[in-house]
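Suppose a classmate hands you a notebook page containing two proteins, each written out with its sequence and a corresponding row of structure tokens. How would you begin to make sense of it? This section walks through that situation. The first entry is reproduced here exactly as it would appear on such a page.
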Amino acid sequence: GASSGYLIGVGSYDMTGPAADVTMMGYANLNQITAGIHFRLRARAFIVAESENGARFAFVNLDAGMASQLVTIKVLERLNHRYGDLYNEDNLAISGTHTHAGPGGYLQYALYAAASLGFVPQSFDAIVNAIALSIVQAHNNLKPGSIFINQGDVENAGINRSPSAYLFNPAEERARYPKDVDTQMTLLKFIDEQRGKSIGSFNWFATHGTSMSRDNLLISGDNKGAAARFFEDWFASTQANSSSNSNVSKASGLLEKATGGKECSKTTSQGFKVRKSDGSQFVGAFCQSNVGDVTPNVLGAFCTDSGKPCDFNHSSCHGDTKLCVARGPGYPDEVKSTKIIGERQFQKAADLFASATEELTGKIDFRHVYLNFTDLDVALDGNKIVKPCPAAVGPGFAAGTTDGPGLTGFQQGDLEIAEKWRKIRDLIKKPSQYQEDCQKPKAVLLSTGEMFDPYAWAPTILPIQILRLGKLIILSVPGENSNKLLGCTPVIAKQSLKLSASTEFTTMAGRRLREAVKETLISNGNGEFDNETVIVIAGLTNTYSQYIATFEEYQQQRYEAASTIYGPHTLSTYIQEFKKLAVALVKGDKVAEGPSPPDLSAVQLKLLGGPYGDIPPPGKNFGDMKDDIKSSGPFKKGDKLIASFWSANPRYDLLTEGTFAVVEMLQEKRWIPAYDDDDFSLVFKYNLDNTTFKGLATIEWEVPDDARSGIYRIRHFGSARKTQDSPIIYFTGASSSFTVS
């Protein structure tokens, strides 16, 4: 077909952070500390350009709770070394999927750092490195190509978790929408013109990354990461040759004993990966949208004591929020729920991908501005001028959500704060009278925008960004703010912290923003834009600044409203500023960049120590078996096999683009990797043995339905320092082999 004239490229890189000792980012549960990997986290990027020297932008989707200002700053420094200012803050968007099962420690504001024992350089570097390298890969892959767009509804992958707040919106506005969540998925399909084949696909759809609960300790991309893994594997299987090795010999004489631990090199495990990431791989990304009040736990929220539905207005049970917990479709199995919600998104994406026929053509353009949020004047209807407030959270924030209940003594919808908490608050920082008046009806639980000790607790300078790709408009919103809060004060730290992270624009807030931007484009665009213009919100992008509820939802002060940190007019502020940016985009005007955000990397507190050296038990080597597979089989589909190896802390080396766990299959007398730690069926866990206190790697494989019959074994890779100063050694070992029927 005729070329749309775009250059397109995609890339993807492993961003899995420390699989031990680091608090996860999302629920702000201080006991939720990484202890293994369910499947790996990736950064997935696409770049579109009008020509070699024409306009371009890069969009990166991260398997992370959210993007971070400091991450963006450091990524741009790296890209600048390579490409000058070809990629800059104007044309780079970095968006998080909002999984709550990734390592924390990469956000620069104190509120969010509190829950991860401060700043964790290893966690931060893994993310920065993966974003930069995914962009490098996409840049190196730029080729003439075409882009197709398709939209459709995803069934039953999200419900509203604050339906009572949604009902505060005007009845005539609600009557225009069939549901209290947005079910639409918008998908792009990238086709390489020369080869005539698809190289990747990105889609946007709103549902929280909270299928895995606040008690999960395994690194996971949650439902969106799972959907991406299923989509990429599905695409690879449609491309693979149909020749199957069904003649694998089944002679039992080939069973072997465990190998014992042996030393290997830093890169050995990379050769055992099932999926190679050399830049030629198909990239399928599932991006986040206006997910504020959308939960993937679609069965609803129930009281854990009685099994009855929770209180509608407060999501509590006899006044206790801790007892009110949402259920996913695989309840009570969170891994099953993750898989089901992932599959629902994947299946819709595969349908839209297969049926996409509408090609995008037209200009590539972008606008970006930094806003000093609390200095803005916002004109409301009737010309009343208001200002957003300094950042603050209310008591409903401490209550958490049904996805991750918070502190006892708080409920969603609380408009007052108990005397004891008020005293604690005033010890930390008493809010100004201006702040208390400004935030009403929110009671100020923590006035984060007025807290600067040991450094800023919340951002005041926020970026907003518009990307244009023909008739597709992407709005990058810094929504969200996770509740990392209360870990900073010893008094509160004694309570077990169970605050869940909030999520950006609520459903109705997102609808209002999309509509306002669309109207602005149409009325200023001289016929360039019309009702066919597609507007998507890319959530959790570039910085993290908590929720945005509508003015009406704000009145009830449920979790999303209590986390709308800049007060009741937050949404009006965003709409006003996005409209200005849209006008500049349409008219081709430059925009003043605004004040730069601070780089707080120099003042970050780093409280996580170690690891300080690991040695195996006397007479054992790293990689030796502790507990071998219980029998040589035959095992059948659905059976779970477990092997444990003497190992060391996985923080010595993240084995980036490698693997801690492999299932190998015997084929023509050679062992070939069949599954690795990026597979849904294979889990790597790390803990200390409870008698020797030595490191143990436990690898669990649930034989999947697509496993072929034959002979298999389980292999582990790891790394260690025997003392703090000795060099890192790498090791591997394999279990006895077994048969699968």
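The notebook's second entry, a different protein, reads as follows.
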Amino acid sequence: MGKRRSGRELLSSLSKKQKKHLREFGEEHPFYDKLLLLLLLHSCFPFQSENSDKSSAESDSETEVEQVSVYHKLLATLKTSPESESEEEEDESESEEAGESEAEMDSEGSQETGEADGGEEDKNDVPEEEEATDTAEQTLSQEQDDGADTSCDPRHGVIEEFTDVKHESEFSLETNFMEEESGDCNADTRDSNPFKQHMDKELEEKEIEKMSTLPKTSSQSQWPRLGQLTFSSTLEKHKTLKADKEVDVKQLYLHKPLESTWPKVNKQFLSSVSKPSDSPFTPLQRELFCIMNTYRDLFYPERNALTNGEEIRHAYCLHALNHVLKANAQVLSNNAKRRDRKPGSDTDDYRDQGLTRPKVLMIVPFRECALRIVHIFINLLEVNDKKKIDVSNKKRFKGEFGSDPEEKPPNLKRPEDYEAVFAGNIDDHFRIGVAILQKSMRLYAPFYSSDIIIASPVGMRTVIGAEGEKKRDFDFLSSIEILIIDQADIYLMQNWEHVLHLMKHINLLPLDSHGVDFSRVRMLNLNNWSKYYRQTLLFSALQHPQINSVFNKHCLNYVGQVAVRNVPLTGSISHVVVQLPHVFRRLEAESVTSVIDARFQFFIDKVLPEYRDAIMSHTLIYVPSYFDYVRLRNYFKKEDLNFTHICEYTKKAAVCRARRFFLKGEKQFLLFTERFHFYKRYTIKGIRNLIFYELPTYSHFYSEICNMMKATDNGMDATWTCTVLYSKYDAQKLAAVVGIDRTAQMLQSKKNVHLFVTGES
């Protein structure tokens, strides 16, 4: 308010001619410094004013767009200072110099030099916090972010929640009633409905105590498509899950409109020769949805962005939307019953809500994922072309979550899996609330008025906050009934702590009532038993101890947990196409916590001395953990070794220099982090000796790095070496690289294992 008021006072002191000049030309007046002009801009173009509820709502008017663009241009004139401009010029000249040197390294084509010259416009950079500078476009989009969500930007001191006054009453569950023509009310009251069976189950304190103290019992079963399943539960005894060979949509108890829309939406994944009478699910979707529909927790570690990623996304979107529609239909139906009930009748029959409205939380890594999810929701809700649903703020959503195809740099070739993962808008800082009521959808709904929240881990972390912060909120997570974590493996490359932080703050009792009618709240929520009813769906491209830990410790569903536990038979080593001897050296460690120090000591005592000789030049050391990378870098500096290093925070110019020095042999060692490879996928040339300090997180990275070893001189390939460090705690990673049979032999034997791969098998 202080800035806005002072800006108005300054504006009032200007003449009409000066105001007109400022609006039309956007020139910096010589009698105002930049700070004062910024204040004037906020007052001249108050698009983010106190009445943000009106201006944040989607507007199709051209005048509003023009105002924003003028503000845009004015801010752009002030975004750099002389000091920052000189720094940028210095950076560019350094980058150009590195690019010229890189061009001399080899003449294998313009693609490699285009990657290495430091001029590549790759939007997948991992930004370094110390160098982050906001352009006018970023500032503008942050101020208009989800839910008028200035909390996405930690620089803002106040969390302003998006409020859409126009649609607030329309999407309120308390003031609306079930439409008579829908006929959904009767469908949702069937006793065999999985939704009602799960949510209406009343647990006893003895059962809660069992789940808190007793270990889980497990059983295994084999399914045709999913493979080996492990079912675990505390309350239910050994139970064999059987896959349904055929699934009738009517037997799934889907909400009425979904029965007709799902076959159309999912048609793209079905065989072109499928008959109308065939199942509307693919074999994978059928088995996954059969488990989802029982409300058991599910862990599926074989998600692949190239093959089955979209199939899985459609399946869990169907389940989430079905759950929300049923829950809302129950509330609207009970609203009508309460309205017509006789005075003095029992009100306990209408307990149909949680302490807060959000029911489904969907965690995805990028904005593109959220965009696809919302599109699936819209398609599932539109019965036909004539009956389009009303989607509020759709234009704004497309602008903030969509992407411009022209932004992608041309002539950049990356592996297919890289292109699939990093498609579209890959901003990883976002959150958006979605409210769904009968035939309408509201995007950018306030969290406490939302049914579904779609967010990234860092987007949730900034709103949840940390202990001791004044502005933090996590009450909206108190009554989450379905938690979906998709592409969990990517969060290992981002920041896994954000996922753990979220799991610690979900399904806690809220600190405020938030206007809830306690006579409508389920007893399970009042007893703080929500976590025992919450269903968690966890999808990943791999099995990892961190992901397994979340599934085992934080998934407490009383119905039980189902995990897919298939073991790899061959491993990614079979995809190595160069003739290369692989030496797997086993290190001993007493515990998981001590393996970090044991690996470091084993490396500097037994492995590194073998590579200190000048003849062992061109040695790349692949380090998955950034903390191990820092430790090794400091040790190499202390020992004054001839080395260079590349990590996810290295500038482009420094990357170019490091690649050039390593290729020409001016640096003997190259420390190389896994996260840099994940985000960039550069080809490192000149590798003759390769050391995997630890097995890679993604098994296919092993073959990718090995296949970079191309001869730079005739006959050099005879001296190639590959050394891998592993311990008994790396069993899952080892199996993904060499296969389950070799892993069993290697873990039983304490000797080093020598493998020689002659090519792709």
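A careful reader of the second entry would note: The chain has two domains: 194-339+351-405+420-564, 570-758.
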